Amino acid sequence: MKLPLDDPSALEAFLRPESDLERHLLTFPEFRRGLLWGEPRFGHPEGKIVLHIREVLDNVDLIQGLTKVQRQQLRLITLVHDTFKYAEDRSRPRDWSKHHGQLARRFLKKYTNDRAVLDIVETHDDAYYAWLAQKHEEFGAENPHKSLDALLLRVGYCRQMYYLFFKCDTQTGDKTQAPLKWFERTAPGIAPVSIREAIW
Length: 200
Fold this sequence. Notes:
The chain is mainly α. The protein has helices at 8-15, 20-25, 29-35, 49-62, 68-81, 100-108, 115-123, 126-135, 137-142, 148-155, 159-170, 178-186.
């Protein structure tokens, strides 16, 4: 699929924005650059971020019973969560202030003050990291976001929304489902939902 970087209308037609803010984000060159970044890799055989985002948006569509506000929140999180991967610092030791979730939050806070949206965008990978840390001690040693307790301390007030996004994000590409199943078993106070039942 070819989606030209200098043609916001092509991205708009593909992503089908539902709000003025969603449409506005697609006008920024740095945002479009992030959407079109990426090559096929483990977990993301689709390659480009925009293709992953389309998959996550399709999952959001499958969740029953969302309010209009919840749907808007999930869509906004989805559009922004991985869009700044191209700008992430991957040097070692890792500078976690330059993780793509942090970069995405800093970008998005200019356009919304929704605390849940901003916190989930920033910490969207932390459930996966917490799962990794309980399996591999060496990963936990280098990652400040290494425990489920630390994550829930941060997003406990919006844990169901966090979970819904984590589910929509994880049930894409060829991602392992083990972290999601672990989170559903382990995280207190969430109500598990089913999506993509025919596939997963």
